[in-house]
Amino acid sequence: MRSHFTKSSNLDEAKAITTIQERATILWKQSDIDKLIERIGDARIVMLGEASHGTHEYYTWRSMISRRLIKEKKFNFIAVEGDWPDCYKLNRYIKNLVQGQGAKSLLGDFNRWPTWMWANWEIVALMEWMRNYNTESKANAGFYGLDVYSLWESMEAIMNYLEKNDPSALKLAQEAFRCFEPYKHEGRDYAMASRLVPELCENEVVDLLKEIQYKITRYDSDPENVFSTQQNALVAVNAERYYRAMVQGGPHSWNIRDQHMMDTLDRLLQFHGPDSKAIVWAHNTHIGDARATDMVADGMYNIGELARIKYKKEDVFLVGFGSYKGNVVAGRQWGAEMRDVEVPSAAKGSWEYLLHKAGPENKLLLMEDFMDDQFMEHHIGHRAIGVVYNSAYEQYGNYVPTILPLRYDAFIYLDHTRALHPLHIKPDGHQTPETYPFGM
Questions:
Q1: Exposure on the CB side of residue 35, measured as CA atoms within 13 A
Q2: One-character DSSP codes across 217-260
């Protein structure tokens, strides 16, 4: 993805700042989010973004909004940019279907880099809240992973399931697993090997998926476990495709990944019934409509765009997040040790810069109030920080030219943000860190 700083030379910055001051809602207290909840209305899918994968406030604000959507509008589940097998264990825990392990222990098993994305105190608090909510309200709110990376973990989950429920199909799973085994659970190793043998393990995972789909109605009486087994088979097929596409470069691997996430979301909605509602947590680059950015020029699409195309306009509500400065958890390179990194003040002329100049307060922008020509006709740089981040090069690789009112339905601006609290770093004073906005 091309991600660079673009400043529109024709934008009247003073006018843009004045418009923001006049129309944004200042977020002083919890009830200030009421306007957002009201504007979401009867939407079936609400996607909550983030400008980084390591910012405390993005998690706490999304948690607060999600709690209200689950309690007040009866949303059925949260689906996140995470691995299916790990998230499914949490899903069973919050539904009181497994005993003996708390959310902290289960999240400690999230060992795929970047571990901090889900193994953090902020998610522990949300998972325990969901478990308590399900218990007290006799509800069944779930938590699922949408992503495609968990090839080996999904294969292992399939074998464990088939060993108990369909020993005859287990042989196919073992054959597929043996094909991947030489690559030591590392997708990049498999991707490099596939350059020499383009269809290295494709047939094995496709045959396994066909076998599971053929026999699916014969499996156990727990429909969600049956669904999970089929989902793991789909992950294996699409992960294999993703890793092969990764070495080719270009947008193809990105599109495979986002199409998989969208297909998983569709399957979850079908599984939960025609009136089901979903909350999605993913990076802004996934949930913000790609057609409003320069991603479209590279032939890339994302789940925000795909959802808007497939569902009615009133059924999909996209919420972006961003901040002016602060700290973030990230690595210097893929697989590197996590660090607490300072995020400098946003680049001059960017969306974050304009929002800060309109006042240092946190703000809610409801995008139908910002359809002016000045915002609709200019692609303005919008910061995006990944799990790999070097602030020294920020202006050259961390701003996506964006028409904000077309990319989101609402935008939450948080002026100064802090780093996330990873689980294996002890909280200050050995107390769980604050995991809710407004100190609540």
A1: 18
A2: GGS-S-HHHHHHHHHHHHHHHHHHHHHHHHTT-SSHHHHHHHHH
Contacts of 74 (CB under 8 A, 6+ apart): 277
The whole-chain average pLDDT of the chain stands at: 88
Decide if 228 contacts 157 (C-beta within 8 A): yes
Q: Indicate the residue among 270, 295, 323 that finishes a domain.
A: 270
In the chain, what percentage of residues exceed pLDDT 90?
64
Q: Is the Cβ–Cβ distance between 86 and 153 less than 8 Å?
A: yes
In a domain, 402, yes or no: yes
What distance in Å separates the CA atoms of residue 157 and residue 148, rounded to the nearest whole number?
14
Supply the CATH number for residue 194's domain: 1.20.1440
Length of the chain: 440
Q: Which amino acid is at 129?
A: W
Regarding pTM above 0.70, the answer is: yes
Q: What is the pLDDT of residue 429?
A: 43
Q: Which two tokens stand for residue 427?
A: 């909280």
* Domain assignment of residue 136, yes or no: no
Same domain flag for 247 and 332: no
Q: Using CA atoms, how far apart are residues 102 and 123, in angstroms rounded to an integer?
A: 12
Before 114, cis peptide (omega within 30)? yes
**If DSSP codes are grouped into helix, strand and coil, which group holds residue 32?**
helix
- Domain match, 397 and 435 both: yes
423 or 192, greater pLDDT: 423
Structural domain boundaries enclosing 237 = 151-270
Strands 316-330 and 45-48 come out as parallel
Q: What is the pLDDT of residues 369-395, one digit of tens each?
A: 999 988 999 999 999 999 999 988 887
Task: Point out which residues pair with 83 in neighbouring strands.
Answer: none
Number of other residues whose CB lies within 10 A of the CB of residue 395: 18
Residue type, 409: D
Classify residue 344 by its DSSP letter: P
Q: How many domains does the chain have?
A: 2
Residue 313 shares a structural domain with residue 206: no
Buried b (16+ CB within 10 A) or exposed e, 228-249: bbbbbbbbbbbbbbbbbbbeee
Whose tokens are 């992960």? That residue is 239
Q: What is the pLDDT of residue 432?
A: 53
List all residues 6 or more positions away from 334 whose beta carbon is below 8 Å from its beta carbon.
Answer: 113, 387, 388
Examine the domain organization and report whether 288 and 421 are in the same domain.
Answer: yes
